[in-house]
Amino acid sequence: MTAPRTALRPPQHQFDPRVLPWWRVQCLIATAVPVVPLAVLGLLIAPARAWLLLPAAAILVFGVAASLAMPVWWHRVHRWEVTDTAVYTLTGYFWRTWRIAPMSRIQTVDTTQGPLQRSFGLSTVVVTTASSAGAVKLEGLDQDQASALAERLTELTDAIPGDAT
User: Fold this and answer.
1) Neighbour tally for 10: CB within 10 Å
2) Are 131 and 101 in contact (CB under 8 A)?
3) Start and end of every YdbS-like PH domain (predicted)?
4) pLDDT tens across 124-150, in order?
5) Rounded to whole angstroms, how far apart are CA atoms 99 and 93?
6) pLDDT of the residue at 109
7) Residues 6+ positions from 138 with CB-CB distance below 8 Å
């Protein structure tokens, strides 16, 4: 008797709504990295003022617009799900990446939080597999949800015989 086939479908869960401000702050920080030095140098070096302040202004306008629009789009397209047989993620905007990590291939389950993520009450669950594509990351989960999910994944993978290689 063969095992029933599971129909592939997009993962069901959206990330926590608090990822929107978290992603916005990340975009603004990434914008500030080139803007601040350009603006400071533009203010200090009079002959190069236009050559430095114009790009700083353009980057600032683009960065602020991106930090307002992109997180909303990301939240609409990014999905995740954990079933009894696999961890699924669907990411990407133009080039979609659908990652499926079977429970039998999971080697470690980690929960991480950076200081910025912690300030928004969010966590990341990192599922490391034997895949050369790297770990499957579920970024932007509620802290309690991430802890419960890591515990569930640990129990599910522990119940599967073998060494996940």
Assistant:
1) 11
2) yes
3) 76-152
4) 999 998 887 889 999 999 999 999 999
5) 15
6) 93
7) 15, 80, 87, 89, 124, 125, 126, 127, 146, 149
The pair of three-digit structure tokens given for residue 1, joined into one six-digit string: 């008797």
Specify the pLDDT at position 151: 94
To which residue do tokens 């930090």 refer? 67
6 three-state secondary structure: coil
| Cα–Cα dist 22/45, whole Å | 35
SS (H, E, C) 47-101: HHHHHHHHHHHHHHHHHHHHHHHHHHHHHHHCEEEECCCEEEEEECCCCCEEEEE
> To the nearest whole number, what is the mean pLDDT of the chain?
90
To which residue do tokens 């202004």 refer?
57
Query: Nearest-5° angle of CA 5, CA 156, CA 141?
Result: 100
pTM exceeds 0.90: no
